[in-house]
Amino acid sequence: MTEVAGPESAPISELDLAAEFPQATREQWQELVAGVLRKSGRLPEDFTGAPESKLVTRTYDGIEIQPLYTAEDVPGDSGFPGLPPFVRGARPEGQVSTGWDVRARFTGDDAREVNRAILADLEGGVTSIWLSVPPASIADALNEVYLDLAPVVLDVGADYEAAAGALFDLFDEREIPASEATAVLGADPIGLAARTGSAVELEPAAALAARVAGKYPKVRTIVADGLPFHEAGGSDAQELGALVAAGVTYLRSLTDAGLDAEAAAGQLEFRIAATADQFSTIAKLRAARRLWARVAEVCGFSSPMRQHAVTSPAMLTRRDPWVNMLRTTVACFGAGVGGADSVTVLPFDAAIGRPDAFSARIARNTHAVLLEESKLAGVVDPAGGSWYVEKLTDDLAHAAWAEFTAIEGAGGLVAELSSGALAERLASTWEKRSSRIATRRDPLTGVSEFPNLAEKPVVRTPVESTVEGGLPRHRYAEGFEALRDASDAYLASTGARPKIFLATLGPVAAHTARAGFAANLFQAGGVEAVNPGATDDLPGAFSESGAKIACICGTDDAYAASAADVAASLGAEYVLLAGKGSYDGVDGNVFAGCDALEVLNGLHAKLGVTR
Fold first, then answer.
1. How many other CB atoms are there within 10 angstroms of residue 16's CB atom?
2. Is residue 348 a contact partner of residue 332, using CB atoms and an 8 Å limit?
3. CA distances from residue 241 to 84, 158, 255, 274 in whole angstroms, order as listed
4. Alpha carbon distance 597, 586 (integer Å)
């Protein structure tokens, strides 16, 4: 449900209107929306445009999300499942027979510990292994693992040749026929360059793929990874454009190594981020298959894109990490509905450190609930026919194709990485995203909204990162979490959190909305909000609180009558006001849409909170 809400207005939901008037025509619906918007003050009486235009939102790719879709918005025939352009799925039967591949990620320096985690996850329902350990540890990590039943996906950076050799030795040792061996070797020199800034060396990966293709028909060598571009702050279209450009670069390299186009395409797997925006995730996976089908049409091969969806590392939070369970569940839902072949649900504590057995179990059970209880794979292309999804898929496909052709026109993805041009575009999108996060237009539950200063920290063994250079890796919550970290350090050193006094005007019913809004905002930065409730002695309550800064909270009428007098009487070093308006003695304002990070960083500076 799309809502427009703030501390001063009630939510407006176009879906509520649609539910109340299910038989309304588009014209009647427009009149209903216009009436609600005028009543709320969000639509001027003399507004002559389409009223629903006030409810249109835009993605980071400039795609307009309309408040209502009809059959007229569907761009055209999206084909059939299992047939080009594969928008509706890569297989005619969809995931009905087997569901998606439940793929879990395993990493660590202790091979025996990794092995225990792998065996536990396989027993709990995981069907393939995404393994990131040194090549010398692969055999120990896969001890007692039936490699003919649980395919392995390697992720070892530049050491992919040594890791592939170790895996092939295991195949031979366990007498697995080359014709039946199934794996992904994880060679990704472009992704490695994006991560580390290293030079791109395509020839060794292509040579390995040429050797593998002739002997191991079910082994893929190369991964085209969209996560580096996603984690750098990129939009969906930027991620897909770079992903397809990486795939095309690998195709050229593989055909230069002697493979025909069909065999070359069969050596590729594509990794895509799945986010808590379920519709964008669904559309992204569908659009990606359509883009790759167009490449296939031009290059002369027929196989569809092999997709591995990973719940977004960028969306995970360290604060209130339990909410990550909801984020990853929605992301997994989107990936499943979108038709991903394999899905990895990152554990809810992955942003904090090394996941424990509990978080690993929750991650794999997320798949189980969606597959076995919700029967999400029981329908072929469950998103098919949705006017919104079909239109969003089409819009995203066009935006991503424009990004891909721009990359190709600039000399290809390797050139774009080397020149820094792609990094600049990703940084520009991250700047826009950061602004929306800072103003809480993109809310982060448990972090920028509904924070809990009393939450007990989740402690995990830290994972040391040695990756330097390359594209930056962002998490959406990092700005607010830095403030919370500083607040924790302040608490540890002084015995109390930084605080702000809420100067509440009038009875509770009059000030509670804005006081609650203000407290929520301040606590997002680790600043404790002291609320005295209804009191006639605000100066005394302020003095007793020990705070140095105050925020006046009340109604507009109360502000007009007494905001200036209250500000003067408190004796505070700095006075904010919850709402808009200028009054004597008031130094600043907090309101829906204000830059919360700017306000909170300013408060930290005034309160002596350092990082």
1. 13
2. no
3. 19, 24, 21, 16
4. 20
CB distance 141 to 111 below 8 Å: yes
Instruction: Tell how far CA 469 is from the center of its chain.
Output: 22
Q: Using one digit for the tens of pLDDT, what is the confidence trace for 159-196? A: 999 999 999 999 999 999 999 999 999 999 999 999 99
Return the biggest CA–CA distance within the chain: 86
pTM above 0.85, yes or no: yes
The encoded tokens of residue 490 equal: 């302040």
Task: Give 128's strand partners.
Answer: 103
Radius of gyration, alpha carbons of the chain: 27
In 171-210 the beta strands, taken as DSSP E runs, fall at 183-187
At residue 481, what are phi and psi to the nearest 5 degrees? -70, -30
What is the b/e burial string over 454-480, where b = at least 16 CB atoms within 10 angstroms of the residue's CB?
eeeebebeeeeeeeeebbebbbbbbbb
- Measured CA distances, 581 to 40, 98, 432, 481, 511 (Å): 19, 60, 27, 30, 16
In whole angstroms, give the CA distance from residue 3 to residue 593.
Answer: 14
148: closest CA among 174, 166, 124, 130?
A: 174
DSSP state of 373: I
The residues of the chain scoring below 70 in pLDDT are: 1-34, 36-52, 466
